[in-house]
Hints:
six-stranded antiparallel beta sheet; 46% strand; elongated; mainly beta
Amino acid sequence: MKKLTILILLAFALTLFGQNGIETFNPSYKIPSLFGHSSLLNPNKLKMNHSVFFLGGVSSNQQSFYESTYTNHLQYNFNPKLKLKVDLNFVNFGTASFDNNWNIEGNNDNSTQVLPNFSLDYRPTENSRITIQFNQYDRNRYFWDWDH
C-alpha cells in the first residue's frame, strides 16, 4: 500500500510541474532578417513554445498504460491577418502488467510516433475567418484550445 501511495503522489507531482506555464525566456533583442525587413523568413515573426504531458493509469485487472508527449508549438505571423501554427507532437505510449506485489513487467508494445498538427488562419476582416486545419493528434479534444 505504501508503494501505491508513493506512486500516486509522484505521478500527481509530475503532472503539476508538467503544466507549469511560466515564461522564463523573453529576449529583448531583434534577430536580423535573412533577406531584409519584408522577407517571409523573418525570425522575429516566429513564436515557439514547448509543453510536456504525462499520463498513466492502472486498472483492477492488473493492467496499466502510460503516455508521454513533448510538443513543440510554432506560430509564424506572415502579417496581422495571416498566421501559420504548427504543433509537432512526439508521443511515446505503451502498456504494462503487474502482479499483486506490484512487480511491473512491460508488454513489449512501447511505441513512439511524431504526430503533426497545423493550421493556416486568414482573417480578412474582424468578423470573417478562413481556416485550413489538419489535426493528427488531439490530447484532449474537449478542452484543448488551438489558439494557445
